[in-house]
Amino acid sequence: MASTTGNAEATPEVSGGVEGEDGVRRRDFINIAAVSAAGVGGLVTLLPLVSQMAPSADVLAESTTELDISSLEVGQSIKAVFRKQPVFVRRLTQNEIDAANAVDAGSLRDPETLEERTQPGHGDVLVVMGVCTHLGCVPLGAQEGESKGEFGGYFCPCHGSHYDTAARIRKGPAPSNLVVPDYAFTSDTTIVIG
Amino acid sequence: MSFPWAKEYQPQNGLMKFLDEKLPLPRFVYNAVGAGYPVPRNLSYFWNFGVLAGFFLVVQIVTGVVLAMHYAANTQVAFASVEHIMRDVNWGWLMRYTHANGASFFFVVVYIHIFRGLFYASYKPPREMIWLLGVVIFLLMMATAFMGYVLPWGQMSFWGAQVITGLFEAIPLVGPPLKTWLLGGFAPDNAALNRFFSLHFLLPFVILGCVILHIWALHIPGSSNPTGVEVKNESDTLPFHPYYTAKDGFGLGVALIVFMTFVFFLPNMLGHPDNYIEANPLSTPAHIVPEWYFYPFYAILRAFTFDFILPAKLWGVLAMFSAILVWFFLPWLDKSPVRSGHYRPLFRKFFWFGLIPVMAVLFYCGGAPAEEPYVMISQIATAYYFLHFLVILPIISSIERPDPLPFSITEAVLDSDKKAVLGENAEPAV
């Protein structure tokens, strides 16, 4: 908008184009005020246009999942759904716990101990998102008969990421451990995710 | 083409110079709505409505694309998906109310734009093509608005679709199979809803294309003006920017205040409560009417209640479409050498005391129930409507003696009536 700098080339002379005593032209003031007001209005209009693409209320309303794990046996896994994504819940065997604790956490790509990835008092229940941290495929290992990878946890077949029994990345392209979602035990056998 | 004194685009920096050489888009904009487009200096606020119509087209496309992200065109879920937009989608209520009221406001500004053209005879040479394209745009708008109204799949949507596609049934021989083909069934259902959604998404872009042609055609002779006298020299014009960008900007601000008043405070005033009831193919609402902007044409449709050689139903449909098609012939029906209604005393009387009241009556009757006295009033008004365009206009434009025109726009603006040479300039200043 070249006009904000005035109008030297305007055909007829308009009184507002004349410079006042203070060196400010009335027309410049009106121009800047009008264009600024329109600009702010335009920017504010963008807010709903952008925001409408964010998750809607019905999507957000689905963001907790309650799970009964009373029937989950030692060494068994179940798959649940949290925010339209898979969640793996596994009751670890003593061997798996030992295997996870035998590794020096500091030497890992994403240093975390099993204890940090479980809830106090429920050290044998591992809850992780079933979403590979590389590019989002669902790793294998939660269901019986599936490959658990070289470290006995989970194995993502898309690009070959191996997770250990604490679902920590050990080998392959994934940058970090399988994510532990926010969850809480509401009773000894019930967890609420989200 | 433009006037020889139109300012030429001067790229200000290297990047703009590069762009100007490879793809002169900035030059195009500069010549279309910038300082490179000289416009008559005497345009009144009635000349704002073209820009406003363009603005509302953009509003409809933007909000429409947003709504299409959340809407589902399936009879099982369409109605619920609209409620989902209203309740769940962030700002969905704003998007939908803006879109629904935006349609009404699009028609408001386009009607004012059309009647501006009728009063100032903007359709006369050399601007016939602009007018013809405008009528095409109006027809496309009607089709688009109708199909959009079907999408929420409420009672009015369903029965509107039933009634409007029923119009095609009136066509002899091919009518009934044509209706079935249009609907993809024997009554409006999923097939119809899906194709209406597809076309409702497509047509606005066809309108946009026609608008570009409309503006292109406008820029060949340049804008008309309230005197109807053609531009003679540089003193008759002002550059579009900043003069008319400022004037249009002010008009846009006023229009937005009114528009937003409706969107925020009266969002359902222009709609029908029945459309908040889900479509029920087994029950027609007691009082079924189209959206308000179709009232005058709906009144003409319903005015034909008697068979006369052809069945009444066919007459109604023919008359309704003819009411708009007659506009195509206006450039040739109006034989006056003078354009502006300001200098045509007889034409002006018939415009303000004939055409406008008759349109108002048709508008009122279109929204009234289909019973007496409204049917008879509609019949009289319909007869007058066609009489105006087909008989009165050709006759008065041939016999009336126009008032003396100002010599030029500049003279008219400077109010030097005394200098006007009586009669001598009463010819189209092409």
Describe the structure in brief.
The complex is a heterodimer of chains A (194) and B (430). By secondary structure, chain A is an alpha+beta fold. Helices cover 20% and strands 22% of the residues of chain A.
Which residue ranges of chain B are poorly predicted, with pLDDT under 50 across at least 5 consecutive positions? 417-430
Output mean pLDDT of chain B: 91
| Highest-level CATH class of the largest domain in chain A | Mainly Beta
Largest sheet composition of chain A: 3 strands, antiparallel
The total strand number of chain A stands at: 9
Strand order in space, largest sheet of chain B: 1-2
Q: Mind telling me the CATH superfamily name of the largest domain in chain A?
A: Rieske [2Fe-2S] iron-sulphur domain
Question: What is the CA-CA span between the terminal residues of chain A?
Answer: 50 Å
- Termini separation of chain B: 15 Å
**Radius of gyration of chain A, in angstroms, nearest whole number:** 30 Å
List its salient traits:
heterodimer; A: 194 residues; alpha+beta; Rieske Iron-sulfur Protein; 3-stranded antiparallel sheet; 22% strand; B: 430 residues; mainly alpha; Cytochrome Bc1 Complex, Chain C; 3 domains; 1% strand; globular
Detailed description of the structure:
The complex is a heterodimer of chains A (194) and B (430). Chain A has 194 residues and is α+β, with helices and mostly antiparallel strands. Chain A is built from three helices and nine strands. A three-stranded antiparallel β-sheet of chain A has the order 1-9-8, with no helix packed on it. A three-stranded antiparallel β-sheet of chain A has the order 2-3-4, with no helix packed on it. In chain A, strands 5-6-7 form a three-stranded antiparallel β-sheet, with no helix packed on it. In chain A, β6 (161-164) and β7 (169-171) form a beta hairpin. The longest helix of chain A has 26 residues, at 26-51. Chain A is elongated and about 90 Å long. The two termini of chain A are 50 Å apart. Mean pLDDT of chain A is 86; it is low at 1-13. The longest helix of chain B is centred in the middle third of the chain and has 29 residues, at 190-218. Helices cover 60% and strands 1% of the residues of chain B. The two termini of chain B are 15 Å apart. Chain B has 16 helices and two strands. Chain B is globular and about 65 Å long. The chains are: A alpha+beta (194), B mainly alpha (430). The A-B interface holds A 2-3, 7, 9-12, 31, 34, 38, 47-49, 51-54, 56-59 and B 7, 35, 41, 62, 66, 69-70, 84, 87-92, 94-95, 234-235, 237-239, 241-243, 245-246, 249.
